[in-house]
Amino acid sequence: MKPAPFDYTRAASVEAAIALLASAGGEARVLAGGQSLVPMMNLRIAQPRHLVDVNRIPGHDYVRREGDELVIGFLARHEHIRSSPLVLEACPLMAAAYDFVAHGPVRNRGTLCGNLCHADPASEMPAVMLATHAEMEVQGPAGSRRVPAGEFFVGLFETALRSDELLVSVRIPVAPKRQGWGFHEVSTRKGDFAFVCVAALLQVESDRVVAASISAAGIGARAVRLLGLEQSLAGQPPNEATFRQAAEDASATVPFHDDALVPGEYRRELLSVLARRALLDAAARALSSDL
Ligand SMILES: Cc1cc2nc3c(=O)[nH]c(=O)nc-3n(C[C@H](O)[C@H](O)[C@H](O)COP(=O)(O)OP(=O)(O)OC[C@H]3O[C@@H](n4cnc5c(N)ncnc54)[C@H](O)[C@@H]3O)c2cc1C
After folding, report:
1. Mean pLDDT within 1-6
2. The predicted structure's pLDDT at residue 291
3. What residue ranges do the domains of the chain occupy?
4. Quick one: 44 exposed, middle or buried, by C-beta within 10 A (0-12, 13-18, 19+)?
5. Whole-angstrom Cα distance, residue 250 to residue 269?
């Protein structure tokens, strides 16, 4: 398949990219790693009139720590982030989730920011952003703004980004000491998009859950926080019986979508099992870091 005709411009700076996006009146798309956009163009699911290539803009392929935030620039590629010791230390949940994202050649080109802007409902990283309370730093003609992950993912392949805005970085709060994490997923093959995945962060004190942040992807049009599950765990003992019951109750109330590959009822069962496993891992890590 070949894409529909389009104009191509290579932007030399963030400001130039934004000016190009703004002048195209909603008809332009940013080209980052091209790992989602180019297949969609080849299938003619996406037919942008202009491509604004941001790959040669210098200085945005960083992964760094700024105070108590892990900050990832828009040209940081999946593989760079996945193998970063800083990410392992500051956001071990993300490092773990990266084991489930795509394959080497895709990870070498694809970017985290491109992944988040694409907002695939079965993608792992939106779930990680929600669980970690990350913020998206967005820049447009009117300046910069920060969008919390909970407001960034709006719907199916849809974000809060305007057509003349660039996602310039992702800011993730550094994991506090004694926070445990767990990530579980089921997919057709390792490296494929999730049927369902669950990301869990837990803090435990005096054998009680004192903070929980849990999210899932693959169950509907976008990744979601499992707020009911989080609330039901507050003050509970972090054990198998608690997690089993809470995960079953939560999965009974969440709406699921069916598709040709995965029936909604199977997704419901997966959510219950994966949430329990992610919580057990998170609790074990929280308790062992307590020692
Ligand atoms: C075989 C295969 C398997 C894959 N498996 C997985 C998987 O298991 N899990 C998973 O999560 N992903 C998977 N992916 C997708 C992969 O993660 C992509 O890299 C990612 O979705 C898009 O990142 P990109 O940098 O390639 O963005 P692009 O494809 O260049 O762009 C994607 C979209 O985001 C927009 N965009 C990109 N960057 C910006 C920016 N900075 N600001 C504003 N808009 C921007 C583009 O205009 C476009 O609309 C897979 C892809 C392939 C080809």
Report:
1. 91
2. 47
3. 7-53, 63-173, 179-288
4. exposed
5. 11
Ligand 1 atom closest to the CA of 30, numbered from 1: 47
Per residue in 235-266, pLDDT (tens digit) is: 999 999 999 999 999 999 888 888 888 888 99
Nearest CA to ligand 1 atom 2: 102
The pLDDT value recorded for residue 256 is 83
The verdict on the CB of residue 102 being under 6 Å from ligand 1 is yes
Categorize the per-residue pLDDT at 290 as very low, low, confident or very high, splitting at 50, 70 and 90. low
Give the Cα separation of 105 and 146 in Å (integer).
Answer: 31
Q: Is the CB of 35 under 6 A from ligand 1?
A: yes
Tokens of 199: 């990301």
Contact at 8 Å (CB) between 8 and 51? Answer: yes
Overall pTM > 0.90: yes
Rounded to whole angstroms, the Cα distance separating 236 from 238 reads: 6
Structure token pair of residue 146: 């920060």
The finding on whether 115 has its CB within 6 A of some atom of ligand 1 is yes
| CA 183 remoteness from chain centre | 12
Q: From 3.40.50.11690, 3.40.50.300, 3.30.390.50, 1.10.10.10, which CATH number describes the 179-288 domain?
A: 3.30.390.50
Quick: pLDDT tens for 208-218: 999 999 999 99
The verdict on the CB of residue 98 being under 6 Å from ligand 1 is no
Query: How far apart are alpha carbons 253 and 148 in whole angstroms?
Result: 25
Q: What is the CATH number of domain 7-53?
A: 3.30.43.10
CATH topology for 63-173? 3.30.465
CB of 218 sitting under 6 A from ligand 1? no
Which residue's CA is minimally distant from atom 4 of ligand 1?
Answer: 102
Cβ of 29 less than 6 Å from ligand 1: yes
Output the residue whose Cα is nearest ligand 1's atom 41.
167
